[in-house]
Records
---
Amino acid sequence: MAHLVEIRGLRVEAKTDSGRRIEIIRGVDLDVADGEILALIGESGSGKTTIALSLLGYTRAGCRIAGGSVTVDGRDMAALPEAERAALRGTMVAYIPQSAAAAFNPSRTVMEQVIEVARIHDLMPPDAARARAVELFRALALPEPETIGARYPHQVSGGQLQRLSAAMALIGAPKLVIFDEPTTALDVTTQIEVLRAFKAVMKESRAAGVYVSHDLAVVAQIADRIAVLKGGEVQEVGATGQILARPTHPYTRALLDAVEPSAGAARPAEAAGPGPLLEVTEVVAGYGRIGPDGMPLVPAIRRVSLTVERGRNLGIIGESGCGKSTLARVIAGILPPVSGRIALDGTPLAPAAAQRPRDALRRLQIVFQLADTALNPAKAVGEILGRPLTFYHGQRGRAREARIDRLLDMVRLPRALKTRLPGELSGGQKQRVNLARALAAEPELVICDEITSALDSVVAAAIIELLGELQRELGLSYIFISHDLAMVQSICDRIAVMVAGEKIEELAPGDFGAPGTHPYSRLLHASMPKLDPGWLDGLGRDAAVEWPVRAGAAS
Amino acid sequence: MKSQIAYLVLNRMAAALVTLLVVSFTIFFATAMLPGDVAEVLLGQAATPEAVAGLRTAMHLDEPAILRFLRWIGGLATGDLGTSYANAIPVAKLIGGRLANTLKLAAVTAVVSVPVALGLGILAAVLRGTLFDRVVTALTIGVISVPEFMIATSAVLLFSVYLKWLPALSFANEVQSLGQLLRVFVMPVLTLSFVISAQMIRMTRAAVVEALDKPYAEMALLKGASRTRVVLRHALPNALGPIVNAVALSLSYLLGGVIIVETIFNYPGIAKLMVDAVSTRDLPLIQTCAMIFCLGYLLLITIADIVAIVSNPRLR
Amino acid sequence: MAATLRSRLRLGYALNPVGVVGFCIVAFWAVMALAAPLIAPHPVGEIVDFDYFGPMTREFWLGTDYLGRDMLSRILMGARYTVGISLAAVALACFTGVTLGMTAAVTGGWFDTVLSRFLDALNSIPSKLFGLVVVAGIGSSIPVLIATLAVIYTPGAYRFARALAVNVNTMDFVTVARVRGEGTGHIIGSEILPNIIGPVLADLGLRFVFVVLLLSGLSFLGLGVQPPDADWGAMVRENIGGLPFGAPAVVVPSLAIASLTISVNMLIDNLPRRIRDRSA
């Protein structure tokens, strides 16, 4: 018998804003057998989601299928009339979106939306559909399966919504389930539970799957075969074990290398100066009125202390909402702390940036996560880099131009970019400009707030490498804030772990997972996906995973 | 959650009251800045200084403006709308029947235009990008961009001058039969409906388009829902707040449109009364009419805000 | 700086034919308003025809009005009032509104709260009504008209600019400028303004349309430009008696207004767009 899914010579066109048509999928052939899970791996713009959506006979606005066939169970989704496609959606092919939080209609209850598929296609009576939904909720290990359906989407956490969207997909008993980066927006500890639930229900339902992701380690846990995509073309297809162990395509190898960054070169020990460069003592910060106990109404940082030695890097790790980015803003003076002290090189700093002397501001620079919003879109790169030069160092004219050129060299960007606007640069180039602007101040300490999270893995790895080189050249210190333990481990000397606004411990990069460390640190360590396909299954439900803070961190 | 809704609603109503106060203050002082003395103006050139002084005292014109403002606002609150300068009739009496006429006109216009406009707006959103959508969009922009009196005069030219179906003027107090009523109302209602429908269609279309662009609409489509179902079950419930807002804002354009329409068709409503009062500088009458208009506007937008709060699913 | 300029010119712009037509009509009226006295075939106030409400003839292209004056000349001179007053009012309104809006967005706090509340309240007085009240209180003259129209449209411009500026203000590049130690002046002028100037100019165009409509409406009610001067709205009013005969004197000023406002709308909706995908 033929395969369940046969994609042949698929080409998809997109219309650009000048009305030009460009091909974003250039002749793709793929097969998926019954019950098999195929992963589509690639970076943003590789066309992986476009291919996945074509399996539903759907393209996003401005795109259209220009050629080829997408056969699912003998019918060509690309050629069917709209009504027949609609009849197959939800029953033959189901879709699990990237952000369930956005894909659930805020004005209707979860249950209504989960059983809507049954109602649209008249599959079973509403009561039977509800009973089936509760069964699925139970299989997906959702809390309170009997009643969770009565809630509205905003009353359910992100990880739970993601599992509910799986229930929504499976209720129509489809033969093929499309997973569109379903765990990308989740924290690592939540991701494990969701992956585990997906894996269990897929095994039970025997449906085939197409799993779209940029994360090889995640895909290694769930997929039977992997297709590596780049620029709308398939680079390499193979069984999961083969792709991981013996990649043939250089691009696949680059992807694999980026997953597990090599431990950074050791920093010379003698670089450490006499006193600490930055000393943060008992800092409390948050929002709202300050209560009698000295805590604000909504505390974000609770009595955190840390030190950064000269020439050394401190990592701060934690999941979303743990206060790590707030801590960066407190140190930079963007959010003045309620109490506590911050001292730079032994000199106390005023709480708010506006009260700090210009030289103190110069010595401590912050680089933000999203270069898109961190660079003024109306200014050319040269102007962006030139402003701190004029502002801090009074440089003008030729000296300034020469310095801008040197800064671009430093971050390995061509000098010609000087006249470009940020909107004309790639994501990686923008982040380099963002970094160069901080360097223009000639700082001693640079706070990097999730600066690689928005980047594709290969690009992110290059940025991390650049940070190391700059450190060796300029003798900088970094505070490196991230949710990605592997990334932090590769560049930092000490790593502080934060949960719910508190720093629970500080470890050397090699000490993670060691016995005697805090259970949460062990949980974080255990939750980092490994390229080993047996990692998820081998990860017993040990004590660490059951650590109670999980529920709070998941929401 | 219920208490949060109550809090937001009360908050909105309090804000409306504060706004009303600022508005009345503005209206009072805009009219009180009159150069020259009201008493002199009223008594004419030949008045003796004594007579002027007497009238000044009687009208409290010697008191500080803020006191006069308080006296005026206190009167409004207790139903004492003052006396017309022009003909010494109590303002309340002048306004009574006229207000009813205007409300009749507004009600008929709303009943005619709201369903049509909502239907066209939603349809244009669903058929986005089609010829129908583009024609509707072009027409609404056209109607919004021309003055109301142009629509009114065009209607007269078409129906009265060329087709001779209708009289050019209307007098609501001479209506005896249903047929006459129709003939009296048709032209003003037609003109007003054009003016407010254009706004309503635009805003409704925008609200529905926005909801249709949300990921949950795409998700519904990928569950196999028909376009009709996506619109009715997923987009419309979420667009309800913005649509009610669009209706309220459009109806508030009635207030502007009615001034022109009543004047051009000689319709004995409150707006015509006010325009006439401006030419005779009858300040108490102007102030009261202005307050009625502002009250109507505030009432509309406050109701719209409250509907938006109550229909917000996140507050449920 | 020169290098920057060159790179921006190198960018492609997509022109839309509808936008071009809109631009041409707007430019036509601008030229007419400037050159009216040179072009007008007859003095505006002179009665040149024995007949009133005359039809369009070879001598009087747009007919004559209720006194037998040449409509073409009156329309040309009327353009000065309609375009001039509206332009002055809208410029004043937008300058005040945008400056206040950006300042409020950047400073925040009580300045923002009080100003926003006050201007919102002002905004809840229907615009025509506000015009009526002011004219009743102060009387009508060209400076009063400009000031009144400006006051009426300042809250809208303020609100628009503030909303845009608040969005830009939350961007990280503004935070970066703040922690660099930059003052409010630099943040408003150099970080925020360049990012909102496009929408602000488009908004100015739309607001210009509203001002033209309101001015015409007021003049039509006899509360705007006073005789012997006349803008287009006032011309419709003085010639309304010709409506039963379908005289050109009633129709032409309306058409003039419509041509101006619709073409401004066409222009704004179809401004030249920068093409972003130049990599071909």
---
Amino acid sequence: MYYRREYTKAQGSVHLKQNLCILINMKCIIPGRHTKVFGKAVHSLSRIGNALWFDPLEKGLALRVVNSSMSAYACIVFSPHFFHSYHRSALHEQGAAYAEINFKCKYSVKSVLPVFRSLSTLEKNVDKCTIYTNVNEGYMNFQLFYRNGITKTHQLAYEECEPLQAVFAKNTCPNVLRIQPRVLSDVVVHFPSCQEEITLSVTPLRVSFKTYCEEELEFSKSVHTEMHLGPEEFHYFQVGEDAEVTFCLKELRGFLGFAETTSSYISVHLSKAGKPVAFSMENMFFEADIILATLAESEMGKSSQKSPGIIAGSKLCTPNPGTGVSNAISLSENIDSQQIISTKHGNAEDAQQDTVEETPNHSPYNKFCTLFFGAVSSQTQENADRMFCSLATASEDEDEDLCHRRLSQTF
Amino acid sequence: MPFLTQPEVDDEQYVLTCSLDNARNLSNILKAIHFKDHASCFATNNGLKVTVENAKCLQANAFIQAGIFQEFNIREESVVFRINLTVLLDCLTIFGASAGPGTPTALKMCYQGYGHPLVLFLEEGGVVTVCKIHTQEPEETLDFDFCSTNVLNKIILQSEGLREAFAELDMTSDFLQIIMSPDKPYFRLSTFGNAGSAHLDYPKDSDLIEAFHCTQTQTNRYKISLLKPSTKALALSCKVSIRTDNRGFLSLQYMIRNEDGQICFVEYYCCPDEEVSEADV
């Protein structure tokens, strides 16, 4: 039962939205001074997940990544200001009913990383970087023009795969903190690299980051780190209700790697255990978000840690498609896909309210499902359903689990 | 400069004796060709040549001319032996390989002749280590018959221009394709790996290119696994000369400046992938 052990570490699963098939040709030119930032973004995202989506949107080029257990989602949208020029031209596919068509472009991070391998030389030596696609060829071209005249062209084959987007209305979170990324990095660096999860707790008086350990047994063995920050450390400090959330550290570290390179503030949005926590930053060049699933309350409470229920609890907490699907189903009953899209297209409030209203109804699921993913564009729930299965790698055993849970949890 | 004051040996009995104030001047250059365990050594009046070969397709030669040594005595016209290069390098760096601020390791190297070991006396700060390395039956080395009159294309460029390219070679590609041409794209390195292809274009008027003499467009492919070890030489060198002859054979000559500012050369020869070169010709 090796895989089970692995899965018990993960904190939640995800509900995903899906795209239509679309063809978009994209060409953008990144000026030399921004090439390093772009490269750094690719490096950081590579620390979060293995698959990287290039998603050219009207508002800019989005790079998205979801980790393998689907407990973390990160997205960096580079606005057209970031680029020297940014063009996208949509080709409507015949028979496509929707005007908005997305370009499905997924890479293995391993193939994109070599393009931006040496960050120091990027900054010093690169004059500009051009990224363009030719859908007909099925390649994306990355061209680096060096000051010394060398041109490096990488022609990378991509995989057609639907981009994902986490559905999380951070505006509804009662707790919002804004802080210099440097400070967060300084906090995180004190945790040993083997530390998988940390707990962030907020009260109106202080914010603390501490080691999270799953079982009390481990507690005595491991190093326990705890760090407190007073409200004065924050640029903005709003704590509506005390909260304690536990999330994975590795992905956050990856994100901070990118955040550190800029001087923009990081906003942290959190509500309560089991609800996702979001770290985001925004400036005129890009918007960057990472949304992390958090451990559900039942697992964090000490009483439940002692009870035999923990075993079932941690099992349920596995990031397999089961939890996602069951939530997708429950979600579909409450929010129709139209509203999910409206979140994206700016009609956000309605959808957000909906999400909030529905939340209490989902409470039984909170234990094991903490992060929802949604389609980037509208899609029938049926399709979304299928997607969970395709995106998560579940063993046969888990498929059984999935069916079982689906049955037991649908009422 | 510390130097071996008392080698307990009588120089008369050796066919080859040489000494160096700084053993790194030898060890660094041998590292540039250290991709196989065994090397052949040839010594003549001009100096020492160390050769390493791989797969009968690649040959690397390091030349350490007599002038590099503080003392270089040879009693025969030529001295040939084969030696375990890994062991030789381990011995040469027995006091540590890094270029520390301390005193350099002095070296005296002696060879008595066929059937005898190569004897190294290494001294640092008054401590002397004596190493005796078994020599082996010399083997015939490949003759690439690479003659400068047959050279069609030649480019000399600063090593830094190639360093990144070689360090980042996509090793999932079987071969490195080199295009040299009097016309565009002038000089192009390409790999075709699992993730896609990568091309590196050098304009002929780039500051990195010191000489550009291409007479004929040539496209040749070389096994990337064979060329990759040359990265070691590239890393040490300041300039590199890339030449191809009428058969598509590749010669890479690296100019390496040692710690005392003297110039040494390392040379790699590589055969092209046959199919492509045939199709090309």
